[in-house]
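Hi Q.,

Before the meeting this afternoon, I wanted you to have the zinc ion prediction in hand. No need to reply - just skim if you have a minute. The sequence and ligand are here:
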Amino acid sequence: MSICPKNKSSKGHRDQRRANWKMDTMNLVKCPKCGSLMLPHRVCLNCGTYNKKEIIAAD
Ligand SMILES: [Zn+2]
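Predicted structure with the ligand bound:
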Protein backbone atom coordinates (compact mmCIF):
# COMPACT_ATOMS: atom_id res chain seq x y z
CA MET A 1 0.00 0.00 0.00
CA SER A 2 1.21 3.40 -0.83
CA ILE A 3 0.31 6.71 0.65
CA CYS A 4 -2.43 8.72 -0.98
CA PRO A 5 -1.86 12.44 -0.65
CA LYS A 6 -5.17 14.25 -0.52
CA ASN A 7 -3.83 17.34 -2.22
CA LYS A 8 -0.97 17.89 -4.59
CA SER A 9 1.84 19.95 -3.09
CA SER A 10 2.57 23.06 -5.04
CA LYS A 11 5.97 23.50 -6.65
CA GLY A 12 6.83 26.15 -4.11
CA HIS A 13 5.82 23.92 -1.21
CA ARG A 14 7.78 21.00 -2.63
CA ASP A 15 10.84 23.11 -3.40
CA GLN A 16 10.73 24.75 0.01
CA ARG A 17 10.75 21.31 1.63
CA ARG A 18 13.69 20.23 -0.51
CA ALA A 19 15.54 23.48 0.13
CA ASN A 20 16.62 22.06 3.49
CA TRP A 21 18.43 19.06 2.00
CA LYS A 22 21.86 20.40 2.68
CA MET A 23 25.08 18.56 3.17
CA ASP A 24 26.23 19.13 6.71
CA THR A 25 29.74 18.72 7.96
CA MET A 26 30.61 15.25 9.06
CA ASN A 27 30.90 14.57 12.74
CA LEU A 28 34.55 14.15 13.62
CA VAL A 29 36.19 13.21 16.88
CA LYS A 30 39.79 13.49 17.98
CA CYS A 31 41.80 10.29 18.23
CA PRO A 32 42.79 9.73 21.86
CA LYS A 33 46.16 8.38 20.79
CA CYS A 34 47.45 10.60 18.01
CA GLY A 35 44.96 13.50 18.25
CA SER A 36 44.06 13.55 14.58
CA LEU A 37 40.46 14.00 13.49
CA MET A 38 38.68 10.76 12.70
CA LEU A 39 35.21 9.43 12.18
CA PRO A 40 33.57 8.22 15.39
CA HIS A 41 33.26 4.43 15.84
CA ARG A 42 35.87 3.89 13.17
CA VAL A 43 39.49 2.80 13.33
CA CYS A 44 41.82 5.80 13.27
CA LEU A 45 43.42 5.88 9.85
CA ASN A 46 46.44 7.78 11.16
CA CYS A 47 47.63 5.42 13.89
CA GLY A 48 45.39 2.42 13.23
CA THR A 49 43.90 2.09 16.72
CA TYR A 50 40.38 1.61 17.95
CA ASN A 51 39.34 1.49 21.60
CA LYS A 52 43.00 1.84 22.65
CA LYS A 53 43.90 -1.30 20.73
CA GLU A 54 46.01 -1.39 17.61
CA ILE A 55 43.95 -2.83 14.76
CA ILE A 56 46.11 -1.93 11.78
CA ALA A 57 49.83 -2.44 12.08
CA ALA A 58 51.60 0.92 12.12
CA ASP A 59 54.34 1.32 9.56
ZN1 LIG B 1 45.03 7.95 15.89
